[in-house]
């Protein structure tokens, strides 16, 4: 009997279970999720929702591809940067279907936040809805494209997303945790620099800051796991900052439309003056509150930020 037990024990040791599969890198998982988000939006029937969803997915993908673009492997880094540029190019072609909705949201915001009279809001809305009233450099928000809002771009989009989807595992595997922290800190430092000398009256510098905040907001999702309670709050505050800067930019577009609207000899339309005054007041509040939030979120110097991220991730790794 003892010999048989010994034999059984030996067999149990010899027939050990196969090793557990290695989980994919965090960046790979995030890239696949963002890719899926964009693909799901492509299938939406509502043109505005479809374009909004695709562009949102693209922004997340571009933020993550910026990290992949720092990979040591030159071919991976080149592919990440090329993919990011291609997504940016496509997103610009899809912006038109979202313009009208953003304009309406900006007008509603002025009514709610600075007391723009509803009659002025309606008059401006009607005027902007007329064809041929566009600011220089701003595309006219024409009719929504068919086929889920992507219209003639659908075939190219499908091909682009298919090719990108096949490349994601390789792109995401280009960074280990140490390299990921380095890339995150570089993104943090870039966003911090973008806001340090921003003039609240300078639309362009605020818009550039917004681009960096959008990237940082999606990138920081990758380290939420290290301390979920703090990580979720941090990402939420980055989203708040993004929203404030986004509203400021939408009002800049609205102001350009109003300023380009023809003025008759008698000074009419009267809504133009009141709308511009409301935009100025709202933008001033948005800029000041956004820069205050920016100062809190980016108070740490990059090296201190790196030490904190490294400590959080090391603590999680040591307890596995």
From TrEMBL:
Pfam families: CHAD
InterPro entries per UniProt: CHAD_dom (IPR007899), CHAD_dom_sf (IPR038186)
All copies of domain CHAD, residue ranges: 21-303
Signal peptide: none
Classification via Gene3D superfamilies: CHAD domain
PANTHER family the UniProt entry points to: CHAD DOMAIN-CONTAINING PROTEIN, SLR1444 PROTEIN
Protein name: CHAD domain-containing protein
């Amino acid at each position: 009997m003892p010999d048989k037990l010994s034999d059984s024990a030996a067999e149990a040791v010899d027939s050990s279970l196969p090793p557990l599969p290695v989980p994919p890198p965090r960046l790979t998982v995030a890239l696949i999720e963002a890719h899926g988000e964009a693909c799901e939006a492509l299938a939406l029937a509502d043109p505005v929702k479809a374009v909004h969803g695709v562009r949102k997915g693209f922004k997340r993908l571009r933020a993550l591809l910026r990290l992949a673009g720092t990979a040591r492997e030159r071919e991976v880094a080149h592919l990440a940067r090329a993919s990011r540029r291609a997504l940016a190019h496509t997103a610009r072609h899809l912006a038109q279907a979202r313009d009208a909705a953003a304009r309406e949201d900006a007008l509603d915001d002025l009514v709610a936040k600075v007391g723009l009279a509803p009659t002025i809001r309606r008059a401006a809305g009607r005027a902007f809805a007329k064809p041929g009233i566009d600011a220089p450099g701003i595309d006219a928000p024409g009719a929504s494209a068919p086929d889920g809002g992507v219209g003639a771009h659908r075939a190219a989009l499908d091909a682009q997303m298919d090719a990108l989807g096949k490349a994601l595992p390789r792109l995401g595997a280009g960074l280990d945790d140490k390299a990921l922290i380095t890339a995150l800190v570089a993104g943090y430092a870039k966003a911090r620099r973008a806001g340090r000398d921003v003039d609240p009256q300078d639309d362009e510098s605020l818009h550039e800051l917004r681009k960096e905040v959008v990237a940082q907001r999606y990138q920081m999702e990758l380290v939420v796991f290290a301390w979920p309670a703090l990580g979720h709050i941090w990402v939420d505050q980055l989203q708040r900052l993004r929203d404030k800067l986004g509203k400021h930019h939408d009002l800049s577009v609205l102001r350009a439309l109003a300023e380009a609207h023809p003025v008759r000899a008698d000074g009419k339309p009267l809504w133009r003056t009141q709308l511009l005054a409301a935009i100025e007041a709202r933008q001033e509040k948005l800029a000041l509150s956004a820069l205050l939030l920016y100062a809190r979120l980016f108070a740490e110097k990059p090296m201190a930020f790196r030490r904190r991220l490294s400590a959080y991730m090391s603590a999680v790794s040591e307890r596995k």
